[in-house]
Design goal:
One of its GO terms (molecular function) is transposase activity. By secondary structure, this protein is of the alpha/beta class. The protein has 17 helices and 7 strands. The chain has a 5-stranded mixed sheet, sandwiched between helices.
């Protein structure tokens, strides 16, 4: 049985008529191509529709007002305006009204860019491109000849959003928070200074990842004293409890956490320990060393983990004596891992959330050899983070199993 032929769509018929039989790329996408001409006409028709609605509304208002003796508003020709769009420069005829009351919404008075172009500029900046690179890209792709100063203005408009984001209220409780730092070069008083950017990434009650904030330290090295101010900021913004805090082995870090969140269990980040362990291992042996580290943090009990560490030291201490010492030095903050059920432990050491986030952020910031100021760091990292977080659409792996165990282990602090 033959399938019924679908009735032709009127829009498709019109497009076929406009495109013709053998269209060339220039005919569709060129400077005077169909796409640009259609966009221009579409915008102009929409503006005409806006004015029609405005005049109808004005007429209705006058009809309902017995005291109104003024002249009826009406159309009053057009004014010319050149705007930047994703199709390049566009010369528009903007309809006017006789009373000068019409305020277009699609292309507001004083605006020289059609909505969409600003988003393109910000998206390119979020990938680490400079204003010069963005300008070249816009010229190449859209023929939009926008100055670097205007591009900077668009990017700078994000700063208010950054400030709101950095001061937004936070959840009252987070089951897990990862604390880490990245490093960037910033020009300060004419001198290039290497500064730590502090990052706090949480796992919410729903099992979703949430970046709580970014803070730029005053010193080159990551410091427990500055972490104290970061944690205080989290508390001031509404977070009253953190069940487990995962951090690196920075001296004084556990004490800083305890002073703000005395009930929080501090857990040295396993990913950091592995990374530090492999730092001085040649690539050809790194896989074997990493495989022998696994039994330490994947052991079923603390006793089995200690035995695995002894076995590792016996095998590798002669070649790499520093690795076992890293684990022994931080053992007091590794051992608590084994008091948790396997479901929670898997979330802690397999989520690798902070490492994944940092890797994505490093890809962006490495395009900037030196940032001109702190504000530029916040803007770029905020926009990059916003892009990254779009991928965080599902709860982390094994979360459902871990959730019930959190409720059992922390009955008075976790009622979800």
């Amino acid at each position: 049985m033959s399938r019924k032929k679908k009735a032709p769509n009127r829009v498709d018929e019109l497009l076929d008529e406009l495109i013709g039989e053998n269209p060339q790329p220039e005919d569709i996408l060129g400077e005077s191509g169909l796409l640009k001409r259609l966009s221009k006409r579409l915008v102009e028709r929409a503006l005409a529709g806006e004015l029609t609605h405005h005049l109808q509304q004005s007429s209705n208002d006058q009809s309902g007002d017995e005291n109104s003796n003024g002249p009826r508003n009406s159309r009053n020709g057009y004014s010319k305006k050149t705007v930047q769009s994703e199709q390049g420069e566009m010369d528009l005829s903007i309809p006017r009204d006789r009373c000068g009351e019409f305020e277009p919404v699609l292309v507001p008075k004083g605006q020289r860019r059609i909505a969409g172009l600003d988003e393109k500029i910000i998206a390119l900046y979020a990938r680490g491109m400079t204003t010069r690179d963005i300008r070249a890209q816009l010229v190449e792709l859209y023929g939009a000849n926008i100055s670097e100063a205007l591009i900077s203005d668009v990017i700078n408009s994000v700063m208010e959003e950054v400030k709101d984001w950095r001061s937004r209220p936070l959840d009252e409780v987070y089951p897990i928070v990862y604390l880490d730092a990245l490093y960037v070069n910033i020009k300060v008083n004419g001198q290039v200074s290497k500064r730590a950017v502090y990052v706090a990434l949480a796992v919410t009650v729903e099992g979703n990842k949430e970046l709580l904030g970014l803070w730029i330290g005053a010193a080159e090295r990551e410091g427990a004293k500055f972490w104290l101010s970061v944690l205080t900021d989290l508390k001031n913004r509404g977070t009253q409890d953190i069940l487990i805090a995962c951090c690196d082995g920075l001296k004084g870090f556990p004490q800083a956490i305890e002073s703000v969140y005395p009930q929080t269990q501090v857990q040295v980040c396993i990913v950091h320990l592995i990374r530090n362990s492999l730092r001085h291992v040649p690539w050809k042996e790194s896989r074997a060393v990493a495989a022998d580290l696994k039994p330490i943090y994947q052991a079923a009990t603390l006793e089995e983990s200690e035995a695995a560490l002894d076995a590792f030291a016996h095998k590798w201490d002669e070649t790499y004596p520093g690795i076992s010492q890293i684990w022994i030095r931080h053992w007091d903050n590794v051992a608590p891992l084994f008091q948790y059920p396997m479901a929670i432990r898997k979330v802690i050491y397999t989520t690798n959330a902070i490492e994944s986030l940092n890797r994505s952020l490093r890809k962006v910031i490495k395009t900037k050899a030196v940032f001109p100021n702190e504000e530029s760091v916040y803007k770029l990292m905020f926009l990059a983070m916003r892009n990254i977080s779009k991928r965080w659409t599902r709860p982390i792996l094994n979360w459902k199993a871990a959730l019930s165990h959190f409720a059992i282990l922390f009955p008075t602090r976790f009622n979800y």
